[in-house]
Amino acid sequence: MDELLRTNVSHLSTADFIEVCRRIRQIAANGPSQQRALAQSSLPLTLKQRILQLYHSQPTDTKAVRFGLQALSNIVTRNPTVQGQLVDILWEADPVGNPEMSLGGLISIADPPTRDTLVIFMLNTVHSNPEVFRRWLGLTSTPLLLRQVFEHTELYRGDTTSLVFEVAYSLVQQAIALGLLPLLHQSLQSSEREQLHESALAEMPIDPLTITLLKFIDAYLNKELFGENEPKTTTIAPPTDLSKAHSELLDTLALWLMRMNDALQVASGRTSQVLQPNETVMQLSRELLATYDKDISSPSAKMTDTFHIDTLVNFYTALVLLLQGLRSATQSKHFGQWMESSTIERLLENTLDMLRYLDGVLPRMSKIGPQPHQIVGIEQASQQFAFVKRDLVAIIGNVVHGNTSLQNKTRELGGIDILLNQCNIDDNNPFIKEYALLALRNLLTGNLENQRWVQALQPQGTTQHPVLTELGLKTELDTERGNTPRLRQL
Length: 490
What we know:
May play a role in the regulation of cytokinesis. Belongs to the ataxin-10 family. The protein has 490 residues and is mainly α. It has helices at 2-5, 14-28, 32-40, 43-57, 63-76, 80-91, 112-126, 130-137, 142-155, 164-177, 181-192, 208-226, 243-267, 279-292, 306-330, 335-338, 341-361, 378-384, 388-400, 404-412, 415-420, 432-444, 448-455, 466-470; strands spanning 473-478, 484-489. The protein has a two-stranded antiparallel sheet with strand order 1-2. Helix 5 packs parallel to helix 7 (112-126), helix 10 (164-177) crosses helix 11 and helix 15 crosses helix 18. It is elongated. The termini are far apart. The relative contact order is 0.05. The model is unreliable at 194-202, 228-240, 295-304 and 368-373 (pLDDT under 50).
């Protein structure tokens, strides 16, 4: 052991370096005392330097690099003290400010097993250690590494031979469980800020990396709330008490939804009562407005519209993921314990506000028309905001369940009217009628005021469908039978 600690790996041949790394792996696996002894020596730093030297001088010979990373990974695994001692030494760039000269730069290595070894080492460094995780997120080299890890998850999603997706999911799971998700998102944003338009700052979850983060959050909520099988062996088990972590997570999602709703309202010439629009929101709303009325599938669409189209697609994708996450969370029986009542009330207000706006600008699409409607591709779905109204209705129904105060608030905000207006078939929003009926049931059950409000409603007229006109039929109200609708021949 003493001889190994005195070894200068900087001048070893590749074969000798691999052999030394084998010995370090074996010794570190023997327990915390051996890990501490290795950490207190110069070996971790010289191993890092030698790994970087090998990577830059022999980029195609990855075996030695992989063995070096495995040795470092074994030194830090499940040892909070050693993690704290080495996180800065191992992961900060050398010199500081040059992320390419950090171990994180190896994420672009062409060899998949070595890349997997790197991300597992990254995960082992911060494993179940909030202080070390926080420090790691603050390093100058971390944003580039995080960005490349998230980009690789999109490249290798569905590739069962790669562990990058599983490790990235575990990293997000840990960040949520340890209350560090805002810092993780901030680090991701700092890696993108110079490359993105100002409307994609942290105030809006519409940049590609945050959209990837939202996908992980959605998967996390489904697994935690509904017991779906978690990813493979690299997944970290979170703490058993997740109330605080879930509260912080849902506050973040609710805030993002609030700001996206604000952008829609500004784009439509209205202003949200919750947030005053800042320059970021104003710019985003202008981009949405510039895109919304265009037929993006038309051959006449100009190349200059590409940015606006990308903005719309990103906005839509982020909105769908946000609504899926909030829909999952609000289904939980613990939802009321995770969010402050004032936050839940603001969530309800924004959900109703967004539903009211979209219901006014988006036509219903029904298959009973002469040309059955089909959504093909994300761009068309985004232009029609497909599925959004359905999920908004589902969230409203979940939030008001068993809560008299929120049921009354919904009535006061005109929500019953809005929900009644969703009791129609709409191919852009499958099963929206059923979700609306369920939401109305939750609003009326045990609430006499809401029941009296609905009982007082009177039909005002009927809407004639063109298919019925073609068949020679007309809808009208039968005044002799309490204004019930009926069909008659034209």
